[in-house]
Specification:
This protein is an alpha+beta fold. It has two helices and six strands.
């Protein structure tokens, strides 16, 4: 069985646009395999572009991921699904802005 066949599919991504104040552009949740949801997933803009940050909690003076993909393949799958939804959200907003003019 290949690595791709072992990956549990991302079945839903829900994001809420936070606008352009600060580096976090969107926050939301990812449902994996229709059975497990991860809340607090963020889309963050950096000098290198957008990336997906997993939910974190502060421990002392450091932040630690609460949940995260274990393999690079799953991280890629989650990131791709979240960034794809982020782009859909932006496109939808642009369409609504054009329609309102």
């Amino acid at each position: 069985m290949s690595t791709q066949e072992r990956l549990i599919p991302i079945t839903n991504v829900q994001l809420h646009d936070l606008g352009k104040d600060g580096p976090t552009r969107a926050i939301g949740s990812v449902t994996i395999g229709g059975a497990f949801v991860v809340h607090g997933v963020r889309v963050v803009e950096s000098e290198k572009g957008l990336f997906v940050a997993m939910p974190q909690r502060k421990e002392g003076d450091r932040y630690r991921d609460v949940a995260h993909p274990v393999t690079a393949e799953m991280r890629t799958l989650v990131s791709h699904a979240v960034l794809e939804e982020c782009e859909r959200l932006k496109t939808r907003e642009r369409t609504e802005q054009t329609r309102d003019r």
